Amino acid sequence: MTARRLTAVGLDQIGDIAAGDDLAAVLLDALAAAGENLQPGDVIALAQKIVSKAEGRAVRLSDVTPSPRALELATVTGKDPRLCELLLGETELVLRQREGLVVVEDTRGMVLANAGIDASNVTADGDSVLLLPEDPDASARALRNALEQRTGVAPAVVIIDSIGRAWRQGTVGTAIGVAGMPALLDLRGKPDMHGRLLETSELGLADEVAAAASLLMGQADERCPAVLLRGLDLAGDGTARDLLRPRDRDMFR
């Protein structure tokens, strides 16, 4: 019997990304620098930051004028009112707020802190923040198509971000955009090793891929914003939206 094997290769030959950069070309150059070529079944995981930067989602705080609602939120949370203004623009519903933190359901349907807006690794002067891609699933599909057009191979693409969880400490690499693989794998009705049928098992497959890639990407100055994963059997297709828990099944609201 051949041992199961998963290979993860950090693509760290990627410099700073600017608005309008061709991510497919950047990734292919990084793959070549790592001595790799795309193969059928490969997965490319990307940090959200480089996708957002390429899509022009950086905003300078000095260009933002806070609204009265943003000023009120800033008073409660102690956050920069300009950041609160951007946060509200990305938010469908504010769920929780306290000093230093706002938890929202964002315009994409995700529940996360501060609407996913981040200031780390954006600009040296600290004046710019980065918003999430407007439609991460569409971004993943577009990148997958671009890679296929140039190589003949259509890898699965997962865009990831570090997101906290209501019931656990710490953030974990989480899929916010998916193309070319199932995001949620329904195992209900399949037998376990003793033949008993599974009744409740649904696997957040894309999140597991994201967490694996995040181990190589790191969180600080590692400069490894993309990872090639090989050895997974991911037949099928899905979107990150498949992973969002419906409101009527969310016990933490």
TrEMBL record:
Residues 14-231 form the Coenzyme F420:L-glutamate ligase-like domain. InterPro entries: F420-0_g-glutamyl_ligase, F420-0_gamma-glut_ligase-dom. Keywords: GTP-binding, Ligase, Magnesium, Manganese, Metal-binding, Nucleotide-binding, Potassium. GO terms for molecular function: coenzyme F420-0:L-glutamate ligase activity; GTP binding; metal ion binding. It comes from the Bacteria. This is F420-0--gamma-glutamyl ligase.
